[in-house]
Amino acid sequence: MTKLMVIGGFLGAGKTTAMIEAAKTLKKIGNTVGLITNDQTDYLVDTQYVEYHDLEVTELTGSCFCCNYPGFAERVNTMRQEDFILAEPVGSCTDLVSTIMKPSKEGKAGELDVLPLSVLVEPGRLKDFMEDNTNAFSEGVYYIMDKQMEEADFIVLNKVDTLDTGEKEKLVSFLNEKYPAGRVMEISAKEGKGVETWLLAVLSADIAASNAKKMEVVYETYGNAEAEMGWLNAKAEINARDTVNGDALMSALGEALKEAVAEEGGEIGHLKLYLDTGKGASKLSCVGVRRPVELDHTLGQEVKKGHMTINLRAAVDPALLEKHTNEKIEALGESLGFNVENLVIEAFRPGFPNPTYRM
Ligand SMILES: Nc1nc2c(ncn2[C@@H]2O[C@H](COP(=O)(O)OP(=O)(O)OP(=O)(O)O)[C@@H](O)[C@H]2O)c(=O)[nH]1
Ligand SMILES: [Mg+2]
Question: Among 23, 169, 202, 274, which one has the highest count of C-beta atoms within 10 angstroms of its own C-beta?
Answer without folding.
Answer: 274
